[in-house]
User: Fold this.
Amino acid sequence: MTGQRKGALALLTLAVVLALSRNFLPAGLMRPPEWLVWPFADWLNAAFSFCQNDLGLMAVTRFAASGIEFLLDVTGNLFYGKNRWPHLGPLPWTTFAITAGCVAYVLAGRRLALFSAGTFVWIAVMGQWEWAMQTLSVILIAAPITFVIGLGLGILAWRARWVERLLNPLLNIAQSLPQFAYMIPVVVFVGVGPKAGAITTIVFALPPMIRMTVLGLKKVPENVVESGLMSGASRWQMLVRVRLPTARNEILVGVNQVIMQCLAMVVLTSFIGMPGLGQKLLQLMQSLKIGLSFEIGVTIVLIAVTLDRISRAWAVQQPRHFERGTPWHQRNQVFVTWAGLMLLAFALASLNPWFSQIERSEALSVAKPIDAGVDILIRLIDPVSQWLRWFLITWVLIPFRDGLLWLPFTTVLCLLMSLGYSVGGPRSALVCLGFFGLIAMTGWWDRAMITVYTVIVSVTLAALMGFPLGIWGARSSTRAARVLLVCDTLQTFPSFIYLIPVIMLFGVNDVAVVGAVILFAAVPLVRYTIEGLRGVSAELVEAAAMSGADRRQLLWNVQLPMALPTIMVGVNQSAMFSLFMVIIAAFIGTQDLGQEMQRALSTTDVGKGLVLGLAVAFMGLMVDHLVTCWSETRTRSLGLDASKRV
Amino acid sequence: MTDATVISCRNVWKLYGPRPKPFLAALTPAASFQDIQKAGYIAAVRDVSLDIAKGEMLVVMGLSGSGKSTLVRCLSRLIDLTGGTVTVDGEDIAKMDERTLIDLRRRKMGMVFQSFGLLPHRTVLDNVAFPLEMRGQDRHDRRARALEVIELVGLKGREDYFPRELSGGQQQRVGIARSLAIEPDIWFLDEPFSALDPLIRREMQDEFLRLKRMLGKTSVFITHDFDEALRLADRIAIMKDGAIQQCDTPDQIVLNPATPYVAKFTEEIEKSRVIRARAMALPGAGEGQALAADATLHALARQIASDPRALIPVAETDGRLLGLLNRAAALDILFGATA
Assistant:
C-alpha cells in the first residue's frame, strides 16, 4: 500500500515539475513530437482498401446488404407503402395500433395496452406516420437479425473458452466506440441509405446480445444442468431443451437491450442518409424549428417507452396455465379479439380513408403553441440563462479548456499514470499510459483534450446535481421506486432526444452541448446512487441507528461508504455516456474529436474515423479500467464480494 | 462382488486441485485430509469402497462438506473420478463413452436433487415426461407414463401447473416423479428433503417409505440428517472429510459406533426407537412367549419390562426362533443407562 502511494506521489511530483517548467521544456515534451505520431489512419485505409478491392470483400458485403435490402423493402411496403414487393401495403395505421395494444395486453396488462395503442394513434394523428414507419421498418428487420447472430456468437463464446477470450476485448472496444465510428466503414462497404442504416444498427446492437447470452447460459443453475444430464439429454438436447429455455430471461433482457440499441442507432443513422424520424429531427433541429422537433421528440420517446416496456414485460413474463377443459376461444381470448378488431380496422379503412392513412394536411400539430410557449419561457428565463451561459463560458469552460491545453502532454500522461498507480499499482499506471499514449500517437492530442475537458466538466456538474438527487431519492422506498422509474424511462430515450431541450433553452453553442451531456450523464449517477444506498443491508443501518447515529452520521459513516462501489459503477457509466454524447453533439458545433469524426464521415475517410473512434474508446476504457479496479479493491476490503466462495 | 450387487465402487477418489491425477498417483496411502489440503488439494472423496445390493437402500450421511454429494455424483458420473472404479451392473462407468453413458442414464438411472432442478419453462407434465422425451419416446406414450407417475406421487390434477406455481413439497414430488418416469433400476436421491420445512419433510419421508416399499428399487439416499437416515435406511454410510467412517445397519451404528465421530451422532439418539430385537438376539434357544424380531425395543418396552426371564427368546414372524435377548441389556437401552 505504501509502495503504491510512493509511486503515485513520485509521478505526481514529476507531473507538477513538468508543468512548472513548461516554458523551458523542449517542444517534444509539450506536444507529441512528429516521430511519435504514427500514420495509423493511412495504415487502416490501406488495410480497408486491400479488403475492399483486392480481397473482393466489397462483393460479399454488397451481396449481404442486398439480402437485407430485400427484407427492408418488404417491411417498407407493408409499413408505409414503399413501391416494392409484395405490393400490399401500406397497412392501415389502425392495424398497428390494435396489434401493439393486443401484444402489450397479453404481456403486461391494460395500462401498457392503452399506452402502446395510444403511441400509434399519436403518430398517425400527428402526421408522422411515414417517418415513424421508416424507422420502425428498419428496427423490425435489424433486431431479429441481431438476435440470431448475437445468440449464435453468444453460444459459441460460452462453448469455447478461446472464442470468449477473443470476443471479450473486441466487445469491450465495440461498446466504447462512439456510434459514428461504426458508420464510416459501413458507408464504405455498403453505401448510404436504409440498408446501411440497418447494417450499422445490427453491428452496434450486437454486443449486448452476445453478453447477455453468455451470462444467461453461465447462470443456468447447476442442479438444472445435472437433472438434464441425469435425464439422459445429449449435448444438443442439453443446449436446446435445457440451457437455452432456462436462460430465457437473460436472453430476453438481451433482446430488450438489442431493441433499445437499435432504436438509438436508427435515429442516429440519419447521418448516413437513413430516412425516418431521426433525419426529420436532425433537419428540424438544424433549422431550429423547436415546436416541430419537439413533436418528433415526443414520438421517439413514446416509441422508446413502448418498445422498452413491451420487451421487458416479455422478458419477465412467467408461464401460466389454464384449467383443464377451458375452451379454445377462452384460452386464446386476446387472439380472437385481435382478429376481430383487425377485421373491423380493414372494414373502416375501406369505408373512410382517414382510418387508413392520415394525410399531412389533415394532421394535427401542437408545434405552434409549443413554439409560442417556448418563446415566452425563453423570454422569462433569458436573464438567468444568459447569465448562466456567460458564467459557464467565461469562468468555467474557457479557463478549464485553456488550462488543459496549456499543460504539456507529458504532464497529462504523468498525472494519469499517478492516478493509475494510486488505484491499481504499476499495472494500472501502465494501462493509463498505454491508452493515452496511443491517443497522443494518433496526433489528435488537442482535439482529444477538448473532449476530455467537456467530459470532465459535464460529469462533475452532473455529479453535483445527481448525487444530492440520488441521496434525496433514496430516503424512502416508495420515492426510490418512483425516481428509479423516471431514470429507467429517461435511459430508454435515444441520446439525440436530450439535445432538444438544451437547444431550446441555450441555442447552439458549447453550453448547450455541456447541458445535454449533463442531462444524459446525470441519469446513471442518480440511478446507481439510489441503488447503492438502498442496497446497504437493513441490519447494518439498524445497527448504526441503535448506536445512536443521526441521519447525517448514518449517511456519511455507514450508507455512503457501503454504497460507494455501486455508485462508482454509475460514475463509470456516466463518463461513458458523456463521451458518446459529446461526440454526437458535434453536429451542433464543437471543436473536439466529434467534429473531426463528422468530417471523416462526410468524406468517408475510414482510417481517420476509426482512429478517432478508437481514441474516444481508449478514454472510455481507461476510465472503465480505473473505476473497475478501484471498485473491486473496495468491494473486497468491505467483504461484500458475493462471488467469492466461503 | 456377488450377483446381487448393483453398484460397486472400489477405492474411489475425487480430488480438486491443479493436477489431481499425478498428485493422487504420488500420494502415500497414509495421507490424511489435512495433509492433502496442505498440498493445495481438496479431497472431496477419499478412498471409498462400497457395494450396494439389489433392492437395498443405502443412506449416505454426513455434514456439509463431507463429500457425500460428490460421492453420489461419482456414482452417477456427473463428475469424473480421479481414481478408483465404479461399476454398475458389472460395467465400469468411468470407461463409458458419452453415448453409452447417456444410454445408461436413459434406461437405468433416476436422480432427485436437493433444489429440485425442475425446468422452469415446462409444466409438471412436461417436466416429468422430460427423460422420456430425451430418449425419444412418442408423445402419447410419454404422456400416459407421466400421468401414471404423477398420480403415484399424489400430484394428480396439477399436470398443467408450472413449477413456480407449486409449493416446495409439491415441487419435490415433481422431481421424484421425474426420476421415476423411466422406471430406473437405480435411484439416486441427493438430499431430497433438505430444502423443505420440517413438517413437510416428515410427510415426504412417509411418502417416500411408501414408494420405496412399493417399488423396491436400489437406492442411494444422501442426507445430513441422522434421524432421517435412521428412519429410511437399510444401511447407513457415515462420511467425514471425504472418507467413510462406518457403513452398517442402523442398529449396528447405534449399538457399536466404529469411531468417536460416529458415536457423537448416536449420543443424542433415543436408541430404543432404532434398535430392533433382531439386532440384540444372542445365540441360544428358549421357550415360551417370544419377541417379534422386527419390532424396535421401544415398541416392545411393555413386554420386556413385564417378562421376568433374564433371557427372552426372539422369533421371526413365521415363528422361527432367532435367539435370546438379554433383558438387562435391553432395559439399559430402554432407560438410557450408559454402560
The mean pLDDT of chain B is 89. Residues 22 and 82 of chain B are 10 Å apart (CA to CA).
